[in-house]
Design brief:
Helix content: over 70%
Number of strands: 0
CATH superfamily of the largest domain: Tetracycline Repressor, domain 2
CATH class of the largest domain: Mainly Alpha
Distance between the termini: 61 Å
Strand content: under 5%
CATH topology of the largest domain: Tetracycline Repressor, domain 2
CATH architecture of the largest domain: Orthogonal Bundle
Number of helices: 11
Order of helices and strands: HHHHHHHHHHH
Largest sheet: none
């Protein structure tokens, strides 16, 4: 792919992610093209329909998550801090809005795509390794797994409508409180 074509593709997908976060998956294609600074014809040459564009946005989202997890792990010396940083990053309002919009789609629209599944599998493995490292360092409860964190992120970012309004309005705060309960010092014996 030529460099200018790659730049246009990146601009379109990034703009689409922003517009979908703001307006949902049914945002007008014209608005996406305008945000990307390209003509509607250019957008349709790259993405013949909304489904193809939204699938690319899903791929972009999961690649961005994998990159953020890499960055969180590389920027801190301990795994617990990396987990907290990553969880806070995922729950930031713009990213959470995109996750919410993408969650409205049928699962096969994104999750069944090979690229999405491969990248998601990679970041889940990375996240799991970080959780196991935090447990080995003694900072995270041994009875908490990566799936527990993924379920929490899913509820807080993909389905905020299932949360009480004050909680949905402050996902970073409440996820932080829940993470505090996952610290090794918070572990209690079952009664």
């Amino acid at each position: 792919m030529r460099a200018d074509a790659r730049r246009n593709l990146d601009k379109i997908v990034t703009a689409a992610a922003e517009v979908v976060a703001e307006r949902g998956v049914n945002a007008p294609m014209e608005v996406i093209a305008k945000r990307a600074g390209v003509g509607v014809g250019t957008l349709y040459r790259r993405f013949p329909d909304r489904h193809a564009l939204i699938a690319a946005v899903g791929d972009h989202y999961v690649h961005t998550m994998a990159g953020a997890l890499d960055e969180a792990a590389a920027s801190t010396s301990d795994a617990w801090s990396a987990i907290r940083d990553f969880v806070a990053w995922v729950a930031e309002p713009g990213r959470a809005a995109l996750a919410t919009a993408l969650a409205e789609l049928p699962e096969e629209a994104i999750a069944d795509r090979e690229e999405f599944a491969r990248t998601r599998g990679r970041w889940v493995e990375q996240f799991d390794a970080l959780v196991r490292r935090a447990q080995a360092e003694g900072s995270m409860r041994a009875d908490v797994g990566v799936e527990d964190l993924i379920h929490l992120l899913n509820v807080f970012t993909c389905h905020p409508d299932r949360l009480p309004a004050p909680v949905a309005a402050s996902p970073v705060k409440y996820l932080g409180l829940m993470l505090d309960g996952m610290k090794a010092v918070a572990a209690t014996s079952p009664s």
